[in-house]
């Protein structure tokens, strides 16, 4: 037991030294924001949406094509003196679409909304990653704290076993009392092993989300946050209506579906194109050495029947528009429910934290009094001391858990309204 006690002291000392060099919550959030693979992949997707918008603009610009050819021709059995000619041509063609049945304009507007959609999807993933980063950081911190609490508990129980052995030799307690102390110590050691295993798991989760290897099994967490939370539930509703990314994504997808209907309808509309071509030809034949042609052409077309494909396509996009409208209305209700739940959870954990703090203070006073009475040889039994210390241990673990839950509930609330972003948290871009 003494060897284990020394190991425990060394472990506590190592934890204390490492904690001073540990990462803060903001540093973990910053690392996840810059290094998380999923977030970086979404950034690439957003940049692609910008290029799609530029591609849509190109439909309104003229097409310019330069072409030419050169060939060699030999004429046999000819009476002409010059039977061999080498014709060549150089030409430039400029084409401009005049009217596309409003399909081009609708496509451009759709791509612009697509760029905004890409930004919102990036914001959504950003919120998810930052929330996960906060969870794994605080989970790691909580498990380290649990290990320290259990180490302290094992230390106290080891000393109690030694004390009870001495008291048994003096005849002050019975063998049953000593057995209770030893059983309690064995249970505490088992609990310590379990918390250390949880610590290993939480470290792996930390490295996965944060995006860097944790060299030290220690981390620093500020349980008192300075997050700018909504002042009331009504304020949270108002913010979410304009900033929640899920709600905005659903709205933009509905707007895009309406533009898809316009694009599909343009397949049934007439179109017009204006073109200009200039061609210069040399050595065309034995009688024509040079020729220049300039052609201006206006072309109009109107699809009358395409096997029903354009009509069916229009119907399909109208149904998709109806679907997106219903999904948008559903997202409104879902967002409101999420905000309500997040606000309720935040208020609940705040009350639980206050109660748990009071519980710890009361448990500390009770344990101190019962332990002093037991050591002074009064009527307090070994079982009462063990029960008192168990209550104190559980209350301290509950306090650490409540502090973590209260902090995460604040992040959840920010995420539900759409403000769990790098800008709101003051992270570096």
Describe this protein's structure.
The chain has ten helices and six strands, in the order H-H-H-E-E-E-E-H-H-H-H-E-E-H-H-H. It is an alpha+beta fold and 429 residues long. The N terminus is likely disordered. The chain is elongated. The chain has a four-stranded antiparallel sheet, with no helix packed on it. It has one domain: Up-down Bundle (Outer membrane efflux proteins (OEP)), CATH 1.20.1600. Helix content is 69%, strand content 11%. A hairpin with a 7-residue loop joins strand 5 and strand 6.
Termini gap:
52 Å
* Proper CATH architecture: Up-down Bundle
CATH superfamily: Outer membrane efflux proteins (OEP)
Strand order of the largest sheet: 1-4-5-6
Following the backbone from N to C, one meets helices and strands in this order, namely HHHEEEEHHHHEEHHH
The proportion of residues forming helix, as a percent range, comes to 55-70%
Q: Which segments are poorly predicted (pLDDT under 50) over 5 or more consecutive residues?
A: 1-22
Number of strands: 6
CATH topology: Outer membrane efflux proteins (OEP)
The value of Rg in angstroms is 38 Å
Counting DSSP H or I runs of 4 or more residues, the number of helices is 10
The average pLDDT is 85
Secondary-structure-derived class: alpha+beta
């Amino acid at each position: 037991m003494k060897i284990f006690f020394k190991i425990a002291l060394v472990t506590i000392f190592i934890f204390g030294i490492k904690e001073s060099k540990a990462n803060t919550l903001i540093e973990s959030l910053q690392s996840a924001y810059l290094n998380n693979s999923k977030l970086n992949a979404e950034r690439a997707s957003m940049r692609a949406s910008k290029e799609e918008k530029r591609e849509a603009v190109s439909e309104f610009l003229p097409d310019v094509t330069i072409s030419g050819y050169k060939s060699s021709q030999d004429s046999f059995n000819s009476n002409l003196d010059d039977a061999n000619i080498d014709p060549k041509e150089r030409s430039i063609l400029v084409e401009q679409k005049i009217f596309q049945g409003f399909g081009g304009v609708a496509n451009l507007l759709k791509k612009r909304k697509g760029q905004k959609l890409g930004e919102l999807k990036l914001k959504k993933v950003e919120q998810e990653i930052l929330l996960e980063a906060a969870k794994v950081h605080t989970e790691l911190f909580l498990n380290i704290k649990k290990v320290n609490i259990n180490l302290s508990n094992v230390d106290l129980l080891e000393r109690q076993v030694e004390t009870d052995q001495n008291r048994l030799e003096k005849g002050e307690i019975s063998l049953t009392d000593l057995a209770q102390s030893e059983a309690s110590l064995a249970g505490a050691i088992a609990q310590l092993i379990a918390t250390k295993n949880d610590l290993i798991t939480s470290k792996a989760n930390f490295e996965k989300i944060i995006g860097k290897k944790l060299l030290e099994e220690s981390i620093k967490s500020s349980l008192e946050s300075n997050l700018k939370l909504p002042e009331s539930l009504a304020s949270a509703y108002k913010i979410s209506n304009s900033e929640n990314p899920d709600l905005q994504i659903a709205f933009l997808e509905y707007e895009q579906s309406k533009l898809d209907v316009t694009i599909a309808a343009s397949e049934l509309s007439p179109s017009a194109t204006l073109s200009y071509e200039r061609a210069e030809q040399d050595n065309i034949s034995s009688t024509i050495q040079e020729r220049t042609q300039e052609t201006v052409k206006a072309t109009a077309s109107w699809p009358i029947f395409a096997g029903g494909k354009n009509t069916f396509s229009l119907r399909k996009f109208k149904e998709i528009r109806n679907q997106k409208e219903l999904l948008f209305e559903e997202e409104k209700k879902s967002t409101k429910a999420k905000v309500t739940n997040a606000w309720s959870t935040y208020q609940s954990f705040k009350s639980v934290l206050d109660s748990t703090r009071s519980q710890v203070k009361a448990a500390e006073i009770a344990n101190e009094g019962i332990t002093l009475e037991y050591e002074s040889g009064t009527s307090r039994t070994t079982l009462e001391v063990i029960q008192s210390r168990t209550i104190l241990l559980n209350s301290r673990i509950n306090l650490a858990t409540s502090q973590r839950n209260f902090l995460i509930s604040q992040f959840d609330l920010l995420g539900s309204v759409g403000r769990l972003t790098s800008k709101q948290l003051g992270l570096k871009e």
